[in-house]
Amino acid sequence: MTSFDDLVAQFWILGAIGRLADQDLLHRAADPDDEMSALSQQLLIDTGWLLTDPVRPSAGLLAAPPPGVPTSALSGYVREQIARIGRFAAGSPPGWNEHDRDRIRWRGRASGLIAQGIIERCCPDVLQRATGFLDVGTGAAGIAVRLCRASPGLRAVGLEISPAALDVARIDVAEAGLADRIEIRDQSVAELTDVEAYDLAWLPQQFIPRGELLEALPRVLRSLRPDGALVMALATEDDLPNLVSGGGTLPAAEAVELLEQAGFHTISVHDMTVVGRR
Fold first, then answer.
1. Which of 176, 177, 172, 249 is nearest to 209 (CA)?
2. Residues 6+ apart with CB under 8 A from 163
3. Of 95, 153, 176, 268, which has the highest C-beta tally within 10 A?
4. What is the pLDDT of residue 64?
5. pLDDT averaged per 10 residues in sequence order, the chain, 278 residues
């Protein structure tokens, strides 16, 4: 077997993880008559991703999803990663170019879990009193939906420019029964004109091109009420996945400088997140 064959084998392992997660077969043995699932499990057992007696994920597999995302959701995560690699290999330009609605919906739900945890850690006081929330790059509106379900007095605006994501967001918001509390706008954050409309804003820097980010920060500041907070998730590692997402990477120290230049104060850094107050 060549080194390249080894590399291809890694993709089959990744595919097996996604397939078995989708079939709920990471925590129980496959039917012996289901040869493909049984062989997929054996592949993961042989490579240390599954344990036996009983069949269950290894510690490495349990730690594989993004924080807060259960292993049962690994299928969507795997499909998303393989699709991104495929677009990258085909020469697609940087940017979030997802068109598959199932993957958009998965990303939204995963983002809701992740962002809620980050916000609760970084500025719980603002989240507790917030009545207005700005969700930049809302995607499938997973973050807005999750926060509005947790806080009955919260209203949200989600900004998105992807037609596919806008369609999914509007459908999911309606199905969640939150169309009267969540507005989905076909709008770039660089064109935001709201003034003192929100207590809390979420901005994922890794998806926002640098020029758009520089335009956006003063606008987000104006959109916040006094002592409102911007929570900006950063791509701080110089790796290909972050670069492919379209926003490039931004070290925490530089992010603090950008927020200061835009007029934010009481700026703090929490791992890969920077928080600024108006």
1. 249
2. none
3. 176
4. 81
5. 88 93 92 93 94 93 78 82 87 82 84 88 93 95 94 95 94 95 96 96 92 94 96 82 80 94 94 92
Contact 176, 147 (CB under 8 A): no
For residue 22, count other CB atoms closer than 10 A to its CB. 16
Cα–Cα–Cα angle for 139, 145, 147, nearest 5°? 115
**CA dist list (Å): 230 to 108, 198, 219, 238, 268:** 20, 10, 11, 24, 11
Judge whether 112 and 146 are in contact, CB under 8 Å: yes
Q: How far apart are CA 78 and CA 92, in angstroms?
A: 19
What's the token pair of residue 71?
């292993």
Beta-bridged to residue 131, according to DSSP, are: none
Rounded to whole angstroms, the Cα distance separating 37 from 25 reads: 8
Number of residues written out for the chain: 278
Predicted TM-score (pTM) of the model is 0.84
pLDDT of residue 110: 82
CA distances from 67 to 71, 102, 133, 178, 273 (A): 11, 20, 22, 26, 14
Give the pLDDT score at 10: 92
Other C-beta atoms lying within 10 Å of the C-beta of residue 237 = 11
Scan for tokens 């003063």, then name that residue. Answer: 218
186 CB-side CA count, 13 A: 8
Q: What is the 3-state secondary structure (H, E, C) of 159-222?
A: EECCHHHHHHHHHHHHHCCCCCCEEEEECCHHHCCCCCCEEEEEEEHHHCCHHHHHHHHHHHHH
E-assigned strand segments in the chain: 50-51, 56-57, 132-136, 155-160, 182-186, 198-204, 224-233, 265-270, 273-277
Place of tokens 């994922």: 204
